[in-house]
Amino acid sequence: MSKYYNPKRKADWNYGGSKWKLSRSKLELFIDCPKCFYLDNKLGTKRPPGYPFNINSAIDHLLKKEFDVHRAKGESHPLIEKYGVDARPVHHEKLNLWRENFVGVEYTHPKTKMTISGAIDDLWINSKDEYIVVDYKATAINDKIETLDKDHHEGYKRQMEIYQWLLRQNKLTVSDTGYFVYANGNKDAKAFDGKLEFDVTLIAYEGNDSWVEKAIKDAHKCLEGNSIPQAGEECDYCSYREAVTKVEI
Fold first, then answer.
1. What confidence tens digit (pLDDT) does each residue in 203-212 have?
2. Integer Cα distance of 79 and 179 in angstroms
């Protein structure tokens, strides 16, 4: 068995098990491909995971440390001031818990009884006492990142909206405007010299979480079903399975 991929999980981590939750990433999987979502959460056969981006994780960790310095002082951050944003990093008694993977912000959905969860990167507040969801992203491309206009950015936007929805269910007053702190590795340097420099931009996004409630109900209906649903139209995993099956026959 591969040391990197174990397709089966223990039953208590599957739908109906004591440790199962509908995480933000699982809901995104449902939107991407109901078939993979069902195979994963109902039948316990996971998709092969992507290889972890340890550099991205390191950047997330360092950004949290940096913004926490200003949070402790009750002041804004130079990046926030540079973009003229009415905000500052805010302390909340549950922030560390809400940032923790596999815990995050949680809410038990009353109609489906499912626990919905998602781990946020940061939380700011504005002068209206509205909480602001902030998400860190990292990449290394030639173009300057100023907008969220690529296909994969649609998932980023839904991620932001799920976090906004979760915090609202936890009785917080949340601004519709969230922010992406986007670190882009600079490949134009003359030499590596043991370090990689990043251009950091702040991108505002006006979220709309009105779709989340229906998506949760649809995901619940899928899991309660007794048959495997159709694959997503653009699911590479299902396309591969179908192609291999034809070759083997």
1. 999 999 999 9
2. 12
C-beta of residue 114 within 8 angstroms of C-beta of residue 17: no
Q: What is the pLDDT of residue 196?
A: 82
Total residues found in the chain within this entry: 249
- Structure-token pair, residue 203: 């991108």
Of the chain, the percentage scoring pLDDT greater than 90 comes to: 76
Q: How far apart are the first and last CA of the chain?
A: 25
C-alpha dist (Å) from residue 30 to 22, 23, 147: 10, 11, 26
Cα 89 from Cα 103, distance rounded (Å): 21
Distance CA(76)–CA(69), nearest Å, equals 10
Give ∠ CA 73-156-161 in degrees, rounded to 5: 75
- The string of DSSP letters for the chain reads --SS---B--GGGSTTSTT--EEHHHHHHHHH-HHHHHHHHTT-BPPPPPPP-HHHHHHHHHHHHHHHHHHHHT---HHHHHTT-S-EE---TTHHHHHSTTTSEEEE-TTT-PEEEE--SEEEE-TT--EEEEEEEEE--SS------STTHHHHHHHHHHHHHHHHHTT--B-SEEEEEEEEE---SS--TT---EEEEEEEEE--GGGHHHHHHHHHHHHH-SSPPPPPTT-HHHHHHHHHHHHH-
Distance CA 5, CA 237 (A): 15
- Are 182 and 167 in contact by the 8 Å Cβ rule? The answer is no
| CA 132 to chain centroid | 15
Residues 59 and 136: beta-carbon distance below 8 Å: yes
